[in-house]
Task: structure prediction
Amino acid sequence: MGTEFPTRGQALNTCTDVNKSQNFIAIADKRAEVMAESQQLRTQISDLEKQIPNAIEETELAKLRKQLADLEGKTTARTPLEDQTMENLQNRIKQAKTEKMITDEIDKKKQLLDADKNLLACILERIPQVQSPDQQFRTYMSISFAILIGLVILGFFILAGFDEIMRRAIFSGETGIQFLTLFSLVIAIILFGITSILQDKELSALLGGLSGYILGRTGQKLGAGGSSSGVGTGIASLQKLIKDLKSINVTPPTAALSASFKSQQLVADPKDINGAVIRDDDKVFTPTWESSNPSVATVDQAGLVSRVGAGTTDITATFANIKSNACTVTST
Result:
């Protein structure tokens, strides 16, 4: 795994320390620390620069120091007034800053700020080179899934090599190749989801398309075998509907809900390329209904919208990755 990054509390002051690290969290913590320190230094420098116009003259500071030295060097007993004067002089000298003293302090803080800038540049350059815990998890999952696919494919060929009957069963009619392809696709889709390459809706679309393909293949086999005609007819109707479907129209386009009118039934019609409603005698058109703001109104899978609170929300129906127009629902 490489050299571990120093734990919190250990010194980390050079680019060499940063470049030796493989610990993403520790580098990120150091980045936050350096950024906070840099901001604090900038504030301090700004405050010091504002003090320059009010800086005490060198001659005046020397005069104050001489007065204090005279009182401290007095051989006879000091009066209470002289003691009070000494205390005031000590406080004034302690708080007094000449322009040179302020500029020297500014220069020191600027040197510290430059050092922080250099260290921060090293950290920002190093962070992309080190894997975060999320990236490590994705890497491990990618390797695991790749090994899994490899083992399944290898197992197929081992079985095919040892048994002629098994070889014919696997490769006859491309059944085995289809299984391997579908298996690899499912694993790839899952992996894309884990690694956040694909988002929820994209994953749903891919898995839905894959499911439709599998159902279609099943329907073809059932139809060819002359059995389960009802299932085969339903699948054939579904395939035809998906093929002809070009848009979905939700009516009414707007709806108003209130405390006295709490629900509204919506209807979704599948339409072809010409805008005509597609007949659905086998009732295979079952869109998924969705509300953009469930805190205003919810919708069940029959298209019934129910009031929840005040506001506006859009209700849509989706089928075969085709999304309908939105019905704008206003709730008062």
